[in-house]
Amino acid sequence: MSKKKTSNEQIADALDIEITELHEEKDLVKRQVKEITVNQNDVEKDYTSVRKNLRGLIDRGFEAVDGIMKVAEESEHPRAYEVAAQMLKTVADANKDLLEMHKKVKELESAEGPSSVTNNQTNAIYVGSSSELLDIINPKRVENVNKQERKLPRE
Question: Do 113 and 44 share a structural domain?
Fold first, then answer.
């Protein structure tokens, strides 16, 4: 009786290569938390710049809405009204962005202690095959696969 070949063995035979099993335990590397400090002077400069830009966009948006509304009224074309509606939504979103910026700056100013933001990064990279990862995540899977292999009839 010949043993039924696994898919890895079948692929290795088709490619005429030899299978080597690597079962290395990889330790997860813990990274140090980086602390980002925010200079209050930079925050104020950025706030002023962003506020000026948003106000300019909002003002130009109002001018554009006026022009688009005139075109829509004169042409009475549905597409012109659709563009006007999109422009109104864009201007409203810019206003919301301006308010959110004010809120975030107030939160930064009201934070106790030095102005700092902590950025926690907890990413891990796994190097290995997907079946090995599944074996690590679900140990019962290994038991089930072994049971199924024992139940398969031998040829």
Answer: yes
Summarised one tens digit per residue, pLDDT across range 107-127 is 877 764 455 566 676 766 767
Domain residue limits at 146:
1-29+124-155
- Total domains in the fold of the chain: 2
pTM of the model: 0.42
Cα separation, 13 vs 17, whole angstroms: 6
